[in-house]
Specification:
Layout: E1 5-9, E2 11-14, E3 17-20, H1 22-26, E4 31-36, H2 43-56, E5 61-65, E6 73-78, E7 83-87, E8 103-107, H3 114-118, H4 121-157, H5 162-177, E9 188-192, E10 194-197, E11 200-203, H6 205-209, E12 214-219, H7 226-239, E13 244-248, E14 256-261, E15 266-270, E16 284-288, H8 289-293, H9 298-301, H10 303-340, H11 344-364
Parallel strand pairs: 1-5, 4-7, 4-8, 9-13, 12-15, 12-16
Antiparallel strand pairs: 2-3, 5-6, 6-7, 10-11, 13-14, 14-15
């Protein structure tokens, strides 16, 4: 019987540039293979292939998805074996802490024909520059969108009942934890709820929450205290000794969108656009921040102003997503060049070496 697959993003295209949470998810692993190589060198395929083998052997795996290509993955973690395989090329550069002992570099560049690539050096440099410029413009546009979002939030912050927000948070702490504590250090993992991708906003909320008994859907407006409440709940979980998965906002990594405490069987998350979901099974419930914390009639009082700022925000986000799509296009052209210069037999040999080492580790468990 196949194991479970947990899908999430550990890196994101955000208003603060490319933001990495990879370290949090590979921390504590005994063996990490860091793949190096250019576009089209088979990193994602190798990761998927080995992940599939061990998942079919019955092991739970975690797939770290790529925010710049919805069909690619940047890593796999087989936590029961203490194994991780990750793409260690820019922008998700991973610094080894115990090179050789824990981390092992896998140079897939050994499989390419350097002479063939040298003949297209000018084109490679041109495409790489265009790709970099598209990403930079995307990040600048996301940053502009964040400032617009701040303007949007002010209409609600200025009409917020902070006392009611604090009471709601305290009530939720009592409801979620019921006075329970565990006598251990909590394991805290930081991830992204979703990601801004060339195909728009994507998330894995259904997959991440499918085995949980209780799901709390937070509804509200920008600035109604959703992230602040989640930060307090994450802190409470950690202080009480419960392992917690902390999911950051794929647009602003300084904000939180969800926390999951599997030991208590619950998730509580921001269920507003672009990751809007509604209760659909027993154990699902809504937490309405607008109704509880915002002065009645705020939407109506500032209807025109809010509509205008929302329109500006949507336009900026669409423009940024367009730039991510452009960057992906340049990356695709680079891949075509590298694919023609690759000997994938060498990549297959690396896959066999990694697989053999994982099998040896599994045999010792």
């Amino acid at each position: 019987m196949a194991g479970k697959i947990l899908n999430y993003y550990a890196g994101g295209n955000t208003a603060r540039g490319f933001y990495s949470l990879y370290e949090s998810n590979i921390e504590g692993l005994d063996r990490i293979f860091i793949l190096k190589g250019g576009p089209g060198t088979g990193k994602s395929s190798l990761i998927k292939k080995i992940g599939k083998v061990w998942n079919e052997k019955g092991y739970d795996i975690e797939l770290l998805h790529c925010s710049s290509d919805t069909k690619s993955v940047d890593g796999v973690v087989i936590r029961a074996l203490g194994i991780g395989i990750v793409d260690g090329t820019a922008p998700h550069v991973i610094e080894p802490k115990a090179p050789g002992a824990v981390e092992e570099y896998v140079n897939l560049g050994e499989a390419w024909d350097s002479k063939l690539l040298a003949e297209q050096k000018t084109e490679i440099q041109h495409l790489a520059t265009k790709k970099k410029e598209a990403f930079q413009t995307a990040y600048q546009t996301f940053a502009r969108a964040l400032k617009i979002h701040d303007d949007w939030e002010r209409y609600y912050i200025h009409n917020m009942n902070f006392e009611a927000a604090n009471k709601l948070t305290q009530d939720l702490v009592e409801q979620l934890f019921q006075g329970k504590t565990l006598d251990k250090k909590a394991d805290v993992r930081h991830r992204f709820l979703g990601a801004a991708t060339p195909a728009g906003a994507k998330d894995f909320v259904p997959n991440l929450t499918e085995d949980l008994t209780h799901r709390y859907f937070i509804k509200g407006r920008p600035g109604s205290g959703k992230s602040t409440m989640l930060k307090k709940l994450a802190k409470a979980s950690e202080e009480k000794g419960f392992d917690v998965e902390v999911y950051h906002c794929g647009f602003d990594p300084y904000s939180l969108d969800m926390i999951i405490c599997r030991e208590l069987g619950f998730a509580i998350f921001d269920s507003t656009a672009p990751h809007e979901y509604f209760p659909e099974r027993e154990g699902d419930s809504i937490v309405d921040m607008y109704d509880i914390t915002i002065r009645t009639g705020t939407d109506e009082r500032y209807e025109k102003e809010i509509a205008l700022v929302k329109e500006r925000y949507t336009e900026a986000m669409q423009e940024a997503i367009g730039k991510l799509a452009e960057a992906k296009s340049w990356h695709g052209s680079l891949e075509e060049i590298y694919v023609k210069a690759m000997d994938y037999g060498v990549v297959d040999e690396w896959a066999k070496k990694i697989q053999a080492e994982i099998e040896a580790i599994a045999a010792r468990k």
